[in-house]
């Protein structure tokens, strides 16, 4: 009997240690999500905020209005495509540089690490402003070097998205690079050497040896990149001046900001936030389910 009681007490011990962190996360995450969902079911505009009109329950009315808006579906599609391009590009650059770090000497490795950490530590507003200067049609060095004259990168829809993508990759790849590099260093050197002796190319070593062994790490960086890139706000807002000409470069986060604060339709902005949350949950859980079906350890 005493043994059973001790086991039950021991089972709760880890949760007691985690309790302070769980309470903090609950206050910082659960309550804001609850408020977001609550407002999305109400009629909540500037009139309700100022107290001029009473708050009324709308049920799914805000979602019906949102889903009937053609612009919402256009912005959603643009967000999905832009986020996918950012995730793939970030993973490709980060993994390639992680492999490169294992091939260079100590001094170039240190220089690359410091440069990457500098990009990682740069605030999004500062980085976006610097990239705007680099690609400025009048004073930017990029147009001068490539002889593009006064070409405006932010005028066209696709060129603006491409410019923002480059900045997002620049500030996101260090996380992938450092994480994957740490994983590669943990792989036994004998495994890589054996593959090289068998005549495998660097690409084949990565695809057939390193990538399968690094799947848990790649899972983490992929899910993290999906979350970051799907909810990009600062780069789009700063570099396209709030979403581009006639909203051609809007993504869901900027679209929600415009609805909530520019138009004072806080309930619609909250509804967009709930939709984003559900999409991210669906993508993450779907990815985890695919890995489980393949028998991967998570």
Give an account of the 3D structure.
The two termini are 36 Å apart. It is built from 14 helices and 2 strands. The mean pLDDT is 87. It has helices spanning 2-40, 46-49, 61-67, 70-101, 106-121, 124-134, 141-145, 157-186, 189-197, 202-213, 215-230, 234-239, 252-262, 266-293, and strands at 42-43, 56-57. With 298 residues, it is mainly alpha-helical. The chain is globular, with a radius of gyration of 24 Å.
Describe the secondary-structure layout.
Layout: H1 2-40, E1 42-43, H2 46-49, E2 56-57, H3 61-67, H4 70-101, H5 106-121, H6 124-134, H7 141-145, H8 157-186, H9 189-197, H10 202-213, H11 215-230, H12 234-239, H13 252-262, H14 266-293
Antiparallel strand pairs: 1-2
Helix pairs in contact: 1-14, 3-14, 4-8, 4-11, 5-8, 6-8, 8-11, 9-10, 11-14, 13-14
């Amino acid at each position: 009997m005493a043994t059973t009681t001790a086991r039950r007490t021991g089972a709760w011990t880890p949760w007691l240690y985690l309790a302070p962190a769980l309470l903090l996360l609950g206050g910082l995450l659960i309550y804001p999500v609850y408020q977001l969902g609550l407002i999305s079911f109400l009629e909540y505009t500037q009139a309700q905020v100022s107290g001029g009109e009473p708050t009324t329950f709308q049920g799914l009315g805000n979602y019906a209005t949102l889903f009937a808006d053609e612009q919402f579906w256009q912005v959603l599609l643009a967000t999905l495509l832009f986020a996918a391009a950012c995730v793939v590009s970030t993973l490709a650059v980060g993994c390639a540089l992680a492999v490169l770090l294992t091939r260079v000497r100590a001094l170039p490795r240190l220089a690359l690490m410091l440069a990457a950490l500098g990009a990682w530590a740069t605030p999004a507003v500062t980085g976006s402003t610097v990239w705007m200067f680099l690609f400025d049609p009048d004073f930017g060095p990029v147009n001068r070097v490539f002889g593009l004259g006064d070409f405006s990168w932010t005028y066209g829809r696709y060129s603006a998205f491409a410019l923002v993508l480059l900045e997002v990759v620049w500030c996101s790849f260090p996380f992938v690079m450092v994480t994957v590099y740490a994983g590669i260093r943990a792989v036994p050197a004998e495994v890589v050497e054996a593959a090289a002796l068998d005549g495998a190319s660097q690409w084949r070593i990565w695809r057939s040896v390193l990538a399968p062994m690094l799947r848990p790490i790649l899972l983490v960086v992929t899910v993290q990149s999906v979350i970051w890139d799907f909810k990009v706000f600062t780069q789009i807002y700063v570099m396209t001046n709030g979403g581009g000409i006639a909203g051609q470069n809007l993504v869901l986060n900027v679209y929600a900001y415009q609805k909530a604060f520019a138009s004072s339709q806080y309930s619609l902005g909250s509804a967009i936030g709930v939709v984003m949350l559900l999409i991210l949950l669906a993508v993450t859980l779907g990815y985890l389910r695919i890995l489980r079906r393949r028998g991967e350890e998570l």
